[in-house]
Design a protein that fits this description.
2 helices, 123 residues, OB fold (Dihydrolipoamide Acetyltransferase, E2P), mainly beta, five-stranded antiparallel sheet
Length: 123
């Protein structure tokens, strides 16, 4: 699946509110980050704590152009937690960490501007 990151593209086709509710976007805190040298595109392996109800989940994130491993620990991020897990080499990515492309195409993580409880859902 290809997603066009060009900001000049028009909005996607309309969906219903029920369609939106099917996508479960939650906030979690990165508790571990490590290099992912086996990934086809440069990426990090993340462990993200989504609170007691969801727990800690793995994610592969192509964010190496804008972030260092050290600055990721303790950072809150938004992720889709109800996609099926995706095998990326020997790593199972369980959530899709969300971000936006900057002018050069590097990913900027999507997060709240003040801390919120882990597991909080986007609405």
């Amino acid at each position: 699946m290809h997603i066009d990151h060009d900001p000049s593209q028009p909005a996607a086709d309309p969906i219903t509110f029920d369609d939106f509710l099917r996508v479960d976007v939650r906030i979690g805190t990165i508790v571990e980050a490590e290099p992912f040298p086996d990934a086809r595109k440069p990426a990090f392996k993340l462990k993200i704590d989504f609170g007691a109800a969801i727990g800690i989940r793995n994610s592969s994130a192509q964010i190496v152009d804008r972030y260092t491993l050290d600055e990721l620990i303790g950072r809150q991020v938004a992720a889709v937690v109800n996609f099926p897990p995706r095998q990326i080499g020997k790593f199972l990515s369980e959530v899709l960490t969300l971000g936006f492309a900057d002018e050069s195409g590097a990913v900027i993580l999507f997060a709240p501007d003040v801390p919120v409880p882990n597991g909080s859902r986007l609405f």
